[in-house]
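User: Show me a protein chain along with its predicted structure.
Assistant: Here is one chain, sequence first, then structure tokens.
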Amino acid sequence: MKKDPQEEALFRAVEELLAGGPEFPAPAERARLREAAGVTQAALARALETTPQTVKNWEAGRSEPRPPRRGPYLALLEGWAKKYPAPREERPPTTPAPVEVPEQAQEPAPAAAPPGPGTARPAPTSKRPPVRKTAARPVPPAGDGPFAHGPLAVLTVEDGELVGHAAGGLVLDVPAATLPALVEWTLAEGRLGAPRLDGSGRDADPLLVLTPSALEHLGLPAELTEDERDTGRLAPDHPAVKGLEAAEWKLTRRGFGPWARIYRPAQGSRRLCVQLCIPSWHALDARSWKNAAALEPAHLARVMSLYASRVMTPRGSTAVTGLELMTALHPPTRASAPDAEGRRHSVHNPGSLGTEPMDPPPCEAVNGHPVLAHLPRFHERTPAERIFEEAYDWARPLSDEDRRHTHLVGIDVNMAFAAAANGALVGLATPPVHTVDPAFDPKVPGSWLVDLSHVSLDRVLVGKKWVDLCGDLLPSPFTQYGEHPAGPAWYATPTVAYAVELGYQVQPLEAWLRPDSGRYLDAWYKRLRDAYMATMADLGVPDGLAPEEFLAAMDGHKERDPDAAIVLDAIKGTVKFGLGKLQQKAAGGGWTPGQPWPALSRPTWRPDIRAAVISRARIGMHRKIVALAAATGRYPVSVLSDCAVYAANGPSPLDVLPYADGKTVPGSFRIGVSPGMVKHEGTQTPQWAERLREHTGNPLLNLARTIRTGAAAGPDTGE
């Protein structure tokens, strides 16, 4: 019996709804169709009023088209498919498009299960709670390798069973009722982890993120008690800890806390280690991960997997991960050449920080360090006794000239500390050497005791030309608060080199120098730069935009893809807090000044490296400020870390920075997305500044701290 055509059409419409919407060609087919039509990505972007990078992301499977472009793009692809059909044996599969529902309620598309031992299954759409989603993440081809299921899984209980949400929408059956069984399954069947970042390093351990329901399933508390929060771990006699010990599994010195590591001594070349992340125990610091801890399991898996693919599998907080990334890119040891018997040995890896911790010289040690145990307990060290390389926190009163302008505009340096790490020459694995009356050498990293009080900002060299400036309107480049140095003080090499660059001679009194040096942080910077740039492109801010286009693209960029926005903040936290971890201070009860604390046992406890990077960031900021002042007569009214505030007769950074033919003042600030370039931080008025300072009773309140929101107080977010 012949069916009614209208009935058939209705059935097709219902089937489309059941499938989740109209079918979109797979990413590779989208590119094939466009190329078959002879259309470039740029031309398609113009037609759809978007950017070439967005089209590139669609065709690479990094993101999915969203309204209002989804419908027109699908119609175009369907038209091309009729004109340029693929050979039958090469017809590509299609992927169901998400149903048109509000972004915060979209369901991730189901993923096809890869061939394997039966540990993966498609994510059923009928029983999964809806998750917030703004762009579908692609399902990567899952092979039979050891990391086929991605770097991590978020475990939860669904329908009474423990399952793990992994990268690409995979849902893994996890047949484990106890922690020892979970660890055994992860290492034997989970196929989780990530390949090493350096040939001499090691593969990333699998990471399991435990939700409250998974914790209950495994006999763990959903939250720590007050005493456990104070110690940062479960009590040693907790049944879960005892169960691991009975199964001959070990915990690191950190114990069973928010970032627990469970391991057995390596068997040959095989590493037996699983890491846990427990968000409800505050593993995901909101300063770096925003609201990630509150996301649904599948959503959290997408966010953390994206970070892991671009940076590395998290090894703890972003501070810990920042340090671990340094080590992963420069492992302390490598395999030697075969000896006479054909055996290889573990030897020092040149360019690394080695395997042993290093005591700092007294001038680089933080208060309470064992090398300062001879000092009275409440002794306050002066700049002549301790190096104080810190980021800027400087402000000056508004001048009459400032008040005549209509606006105050804040400009902020992108990834300032990461950019400062690039090219930084730092000491490696050899202890520093003390010397008296040394000749200054800008190519030798270290700490120098030198008097820079004779350097005048009224007259300096800028590009080999002497320039007269209003020095009173500038912060000193040599101190955190911008005050002029009063006598000898300890400085890192970049600071002393800048005094020479400004045209002044220097004669250090003594120094602690590190001739064994290298650009240890270059690979770290490049990894984080690439992660940052890729994530900014996801947010609709690709590289190569003109200044006006960039400023427009930055308007509301974090709202375009909340997943990418979380990852962006985590990348910035990896930079900022990772560098801070190089000088981790003692924390917690039970420590006595003059006694060591755990961080000192790390080869990466290196306050000299932190000082060098911060010195380069502060000096780089001052160099740009001086170049702008010399060319335009503009002087900042406040500088905080990587943000400078200028008076201007307009609300935009373009009203501060002169541009002609796409170029601005050489050596000064440049508008753009790359690390080291600047973005718009915020705009207020001189009247706002005067009212705020009067309200707070602080005539030198740093306006850069609140230029974005205009509030009376705000956090110093640094990066």
